[in-house]
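The authors assume throughout that readers already know how a fold can be written as discrete tokens. The format is easy to grasp once an entry is in front of the reader. For illustration, here is how one protein appears when written out as sequence plus structure tokens:
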Amino acid sequence: MPGLLETSSAWSALRGTPNSRIVSDEVRRCHYVLCRDFENQLGMKARAQLRKKRERLAGLGTLSLEVAERPDDVARATADFIAVEGSGWKGSAGSAIRCDPRLVEFYQSVAAGFAARGAAQITLLRLDGRCIAGQYALRGGRTLYLLKIGYDEEYATMSPGQVLRDWSLRENAARGGIDEVNFSTATAERWHPESYAVFEAMAFRRSLGGHAAYVAVRAKRALRPAYRRWADRWARLRRRNGSPGDGRASKD
């Protein structure tokens, strides 16, 4: 089970299961920004840079922010987001959503399902009506989870994705109802964010095979530090004595 946020119900359930055969590792950190405090988290230099880029974009035409949350608006905005997300290198590399009809259907259906409960937010940055950046986000409680972002690479030097992210943070802070924006797989160093731990876990069946696998994995994890110490000592010994075939004489 990959990608388990430390505040998630799934992680809480795993940790609270009595006598469970669970093995887990912290694999990364997940950034989030508090809406009420994001202005203080954004440094003066970064704030000035974002303002300058937004002004440069606005100098090219009419710059506007569209926040789609109603079902009909979400359906249309999702199509625009998928188009701009696949307009650059992702489309060329075949990794964009629109390159796989199954992914297109998945993201459209998820957005529609969440929008029916008032829990979807597709945010678009438009220049003279043309979508040049987009965010795909879903809401859980008072947290907005930013899952996907894409932008038109024609405007890459002006960072339309960063401009959109900053503008949408300001909009959500002003509107209320959302306490934090979770950046999921994205990064947010510009805003000096807080972070949650993300875990990867393995759960083993209560069978003979499951028990054997669980014991083997636990044993491997227990022996890992000793193996690393041995490997480090062996590497130092090779460097001191000279590796075979490297032409250096032994010091012993």
Notes: Helices lie at 9-16, 38-41, 44-58, 71-85, 89-93, 101-116, 160-175, 208-241. The longest strand covers residues 22-34. The chain has a mean pLDDT of 87. The CA atoms of residues 22 and 151 lie 40 Å apart.
